[in-house]
UniProtKB/TrEMBL annotation:
<dbReference type="GO" id="GO:0016758">
    <property type="term" value="F:hexosyltransferase activity"/>
</dbReference>
<keyword id="KW-0328">Glycosyltransferase</keyword>
<dbReference type="InterPro" id="IPR004629">
    <property type="entry name" value="WecG_TagA_CpsF"/>
</dbReference>
<dbReference type="Pfam" id="PF03808">
    <property type="entry name" value="Glyco_tran_WecG"/>
</dbReference>
<protein>
    <submittedName>
        <fullName>Glycosyl transferase, WecB/TagA/CpsF family</fullName>
    </submittedName>
</protein>
<keyword id="KW-0808">Transferase</keyword>
Length: 267
């Protein structure tokens, strides 16, 4: 695989001054605990200005090495959380340990609680037809105060964007969760956010599948051991190509290039 991190002119501007952002193979990740992330997201929503949160997992870092648009988008994100045990291990190996991780699923539960407490409206976009609705029902059963602005499967294809923008704007959400998988979901947000009038947008991958119960999540003990990938390999063997990117390829890239100064600096 070719590794090509070139300098870009992307402007890295963390959501809050003083935020520590580390680099793994040139991809920025903010050193924040789950509580700190939530506090920043609350402030972001209250500001009413658009913010983009990305949950960076090892596959994102591998994709960023060969996809310049994705790399630039990641550099411009307002907040980048560590999603995945591999990211924590790599950060420690590189001498820049992170204090916490926030996965897409955890983030969604926490955001649902925040929205319920504060009266923020949430929109769930993406996943197969019916899945976002099912996930919304599960979230609402847990947090009865939660206001669902809307749910829609739709498609990440650019020709659907005008319709989706109109749909989302009409429902006035404060938070937009987009589940089209990477890199499409975050590129979708980057292309559309300026005309959405939504203060917080985040790509959440397969989260709606997990929350709706369509796809079982690895038990907590397996997640804590960093073995979620093995569980996925057994439950969803068709993902083997992606698991190679997430585990051996990511590890090899970090060991081979991670400590080189060019990869330890942010664009
Ligand atoms: N998805 C979708 N439309 C597409 C491609 C994907 O709605 O054109 C959804 C898919 O149904 C799933 C999610 O995007 O719910 C991607 O899940 P995955 O676990 O692959 O996400 P990742 O591993 O990237 O977080």
């Amino acid at each position: 695989m070719m590794v090509a991190v070139e300098p870009t002119n992307a402007h890295v501007e963390p959501m809050t001054a003083g935020q520590r952002r580390i680099a793994i193979l040139g991809v920025g990740i903010d050193d924040l605990t789950e509580r700190e992330v939530l506090a920043r997201l609350d402030a972001a929503i209250r500001s009413r200005r658009p913010h983009h949160l990305v949950t960076v997992n090892p596959e994102f870092v591998v994709e960023a090495q060969v996809n310049p648009d994705f790399r630039t988008m990641l550099a411009r994100a307002d907040l980048a959380t560590a999603d995945g045990f591999g990211i924590l291990l790599a950060a420690r190996y590189l001498g820049t340990p992170l204090r916490g991780r926030v996965t897409g699923v955890d983030l969604t539960w926490q955001l649902a609680r925040l929205c319920a407490d504060r009266g923020y409206r949430i929109f769930l976009l993406g996943a197969a037809p019916g899945v976002a609705e099912a996930a919304a029902a599960v979230l609402q059963a847990r947090y009865p105060q939660l206001v669902i602005a809307g749910t829609y499967a739709g498609s990440p294809q650019p020709r659907h964007e005008p319709f989706l923008r109109q749909l989302i704007r009409a429902t006035h959400p404060d938070v937009l969760l987009v589940a089209y998988g990477h890199p499409q979901q975050d590129l979708w947000i980057a292309r559309n956010q300026s005309s959405l009038q939504v203060p917080l947008a985040a790509g959440v991958g397969g989260t709606f599948d997990y929350i709706s119960g369509r796809v079982p999540r690895a038990p907590a003990a397996i997640r804590r051991m960093g073995m979620e990938w093995a569980y996925r390999l057994i439950r969803q063997p068709q993902r083997w190509r992606r698991i190679i990117n997430a585990v051996p390829r990511f590890a090899w890239l970090v060991l081979r290039y991670g400590r080189q100064p060019a990869y330890q600096t942010l664009p």
